[in-house]
């Protein structure tokens, strides 16, 4: 095991870092490192199942990172779908008053991700592209039926097992839970968490507590996969931003099914800057590499009627109206080997207006996807989620965040109290995860994996068709 040395049962040195895991896990190899720490491939000694273990050091050095980690744990432990990454375990952290410094999070293991396959110039059979696209649509549809917007769909967050071609959606650190019954395209009443202020433009006195916004943050979704309304509408968006991202990823999948040189298999919208969030935004209006201009070079500039119906400020509408008219490109020419259904799906998912965008149900009903069998045994067409999450399920209630009174980096004035309160939130989630696992193992009535019913976050069952937004 290169870079991995076992020092004692459950204790490993991984490239000089000390890992302390429960004895049931055996580290096999170091996979790589991400935004929050190192990731290793491990095996569960009892089942032989391969898992991915993420080691997160200095959990509370950044308020933004800590809340993203907590949000991912909180949301994932309630989800259960074959095309969504499973949160397998979070080994218990020290009881109070011991501080939480390092924690481990255990997920499903997938051999690679779509970004790596694209970067390596992998060519896929047409049928494999269909299989992957169907699974991605099914997974995202499940999230939306669970009132979750992913907000960061991109190839690196699409995990793939290249032996079975099973697909799982990962990385829920930027996800949000919508209010039940909220319009799926405009969400002005969704309370954002504090770190959104650091992600987007921060206003106000930097010495005071972060202000709470009554919009979702603007600076979400990696630039190339960012829907127009995320760029333009300042927090007024909903589930359709994920559909746009799926469309962008689908374009890259279509590229992988061709025999073109790697240099021509580019992302659909590879912008280099992004009005209005980039520091150089005052120069972006005429910059052909700005994200909006790159988008309009493909889908065409919006009509006046589309501009008028956009949930945006007058300055944005004025800017759009002054753009030189540009027609859409012929996507069939751009993807000559794609069939009519593929082009219909792609075109429908990258519509400028969210309300005109194709839904995932519509995409999955087309013959191109409807006739595809899922590659993983036991996968069902989950049109209804086993649980609908409420806003409290995000564990990011406004009062919790305001009580923390944090800067982007903690300082001596608030660090100790902040760590204490945030540690309590982590312990609550981890304890609930273990309690739900115990109920499942015991076969307790009504128990569900990742469900967590009966805890402080008030999960409720997904409504039946026609009853969306009503708790059962």
TrEMBL record:
Enzyme class label: transferase
Catalytic reaction list: L-threonyl-[protein] + ATP = O-phospho-L-threonyl-[protein] + ADP + H(+)
Organism placement in taxonomy: Eukaryota, Cryptophyceae, Cryptomonadales, Hemiselmidaceae, Hemiselmis
Regulation: Activated by threonine and tyrosine phosphorylation.
Biased composition (Polar residues): 462-472
EC number: 2.7.11.24
Family assignment from sequence similarity: Belongs to the protein kinase superfamily. Ser/Thr protein kinase family. MAP kinase subfamily.
UniProt keyword terms in alphabetical order: ATP-binding, Kinase, Magnesium, Nucleotide-binding, Serine/threonine-protein kinase, Transferase
PANTHER family (alphabetical): MITOGEN-ACTIVATED PROTEIN KINASE
Cofactor annotation: Mg(2+)
The protein's name: Mitogen-activated protein kinase
GO MF annotation list: ATP binding; MAP kinase activity
Binding site for ATP: 54
InterPro entries: Kinase-like_dom_sf, MAP_kinase_CS, MAPK, Prot_kinase_dom, Protein_kinase_ATP_BS, Ser/Thr_kinase_AS
Pfam families for this protein: Pkinase
Source organism of the structure: Hemiselmis andersenii
Residue span(s) of domain Protein kinase: 25-369
Segments of this protein annotated with the region Disordered: 188-213, 436-472
SUPFAM superfamilies hit by this protein: Protein kinase-like (PK-like)
């Amino acid at each position: 095991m290169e870079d991995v040395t076992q020092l004692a049962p459950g204790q490993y040195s991984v490239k000089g870092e000390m890992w302390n895991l429960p004895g049931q896990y055996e580290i096999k190899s170091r996979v790589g490192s991400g935004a929050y720490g190192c990731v290793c491939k491990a095996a569960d000694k009892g089942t032989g199942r391969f898992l991915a273990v993420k080691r997160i050091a200095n959990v509370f050095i950044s308020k933004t990172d800590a809340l993203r980690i907590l949000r991912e744990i909180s949301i994932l432990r309630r989800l259960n779908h074959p095309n969504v990454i499973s949160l397998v375990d979070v080994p218990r952290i020290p009881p109070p008053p011991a501080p939480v410094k390092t924690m481990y999070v255990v997920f499903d293991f997938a051999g690679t991700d779509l970004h790596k396959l694209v970067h390596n110039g992998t060519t896929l059979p047409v049928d494999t592209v269909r299989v992957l696209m169907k699974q991605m649509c099914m997974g995202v549809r499940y999230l939306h039926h669970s009132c979750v917007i992913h907000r960061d769909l991109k190839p690196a967050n699409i995990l793939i097992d290249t032996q079975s071609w099973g697909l799982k959606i990962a990385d829920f650190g930027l996800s949000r839970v919508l209010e039940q019954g909220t319009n799926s395209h405009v969400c002005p009443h969704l309370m954002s968490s504090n770190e959104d202020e650091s992600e987007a433009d921060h206003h106000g006195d930097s010495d005071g507590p972060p202000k709470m916004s009554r919009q979702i943050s603007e600076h979400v979704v990696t630039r190339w996969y960012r829907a127009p309304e995320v760029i333009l509408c300042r927090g007024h968006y909903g589930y359709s931003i994920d559909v746009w991202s799926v469309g962008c990823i689908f374009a890259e999948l279509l590229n992988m099914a061709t025999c073109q040189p790697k240099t021509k298999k580019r992302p659909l919208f590879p912008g280099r800057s992004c009005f209005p969030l980039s520091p150089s935004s005052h120069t972006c209006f005429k910059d052909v590499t700005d994200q909006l201009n790159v988008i309009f070079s493909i889908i065409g500039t919006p009509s006046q009627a589309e501009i008028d119906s956009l949930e945006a400020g007058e300055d944005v509408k004025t800017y759009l109206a002054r753009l030189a008219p540009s027609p859409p490109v012929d996507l069939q020419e751009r993807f000559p080997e794609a069939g009519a259904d593929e082009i219909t799906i792609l075109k429908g998912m990258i519509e400028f207006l969210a309300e005109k965008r194709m839904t995932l149900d519509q995409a999955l009903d087309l013959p191109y996807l409807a006739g595809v069998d899922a590659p993983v045994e036991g996968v069902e067409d989950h049109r209804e989620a086993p649980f609908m999450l409420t806003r409290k399920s995000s564990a990011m209630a406004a009062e919790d965040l305001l009580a923390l009174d944090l800067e982007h980096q903690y300082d001596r004035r608030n660090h100790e109290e902040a760590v204490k309160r945030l540690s309590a939130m982590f312990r609550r989630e981890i304890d609930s995860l273990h309690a739900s696992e115990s109920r499942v193992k015991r076969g307790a009535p009504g128990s569900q994996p990742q469900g967590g019913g009966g805890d402080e976050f008030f999960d409720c069952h997904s409504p039946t068709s026609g009853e969306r937004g009503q708790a059962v």
